[in-house]
Design brief:
The chain is of the alpha+beta class and about 150 residues long. It has four helices and four strands, in the order βααβββαα.
């Protein structure tokens, strides 16, 4: 008789080992970060550490949650956001876009890789007067002329 397989037949990928830090410093605490911490701990998948932290330096955007090693930062997290973070990010490996901190994760509105908000196309890499690509570093006298 064969031993039962330990492989999961679920369609979701295996849960990655992560550490989720929830700021518990003054302004985050005033904005209900203890409740965020409790909500995440209550439903955290196995292999994910949910930890309180000191100030994460984002006081105006709290409560702040940081997911490591992903380097994902969430801002203004509420206790009711915990299930979405766990299901979508920790289990589904897809960050929750609406909670991403814009300082660390600029929003790309049109999906073209440019987060400046300007419409950039491949054809628009030189000026109308035939100047070189403005993203290329300048050399020699060109660099001095532009300073």
């Amino acid at each position: 008789m064969n031993a039962p397989s330990s492989a999961s037949h679920d369609s979701q990928p295996p849960i990655k080992r992560r550490c989720v830090m929830v700021c518990q410093y003054r302004s985050c605490e005033r904005n209900h970060s203890p409740e965020v911490l409790a909500a995440l701990r209550a439903i955290a998948p196995k292999g994910v550490l949910i930890s309180s932290s000191g100030c994460l330096g984002q006081c105006a955007s709290g409560p702040t949650v940081q997911v490591m090693p992903d380097q994902t930062w969430y801002c203004r997290v509420r206790p009711e956001d915990a299930a979405e973070i766990v299901d979508q990010h920790l289990k589904g490996d897809r960050p929750v876009q609406r909670l991403l901190h814009p300082r660390f994760h600029p929003y790309d509105e049109d999906g073209d890789g440019d987060v400046s908000g300007e419409d950039v196309s491949d054809e628009d890499v030189s000026g109308e007067d035939g100047e070189s690509d403005p993203t290329e570093p300048l050399e020699g006298e060109q660099a001095l002329d532009r300073s």
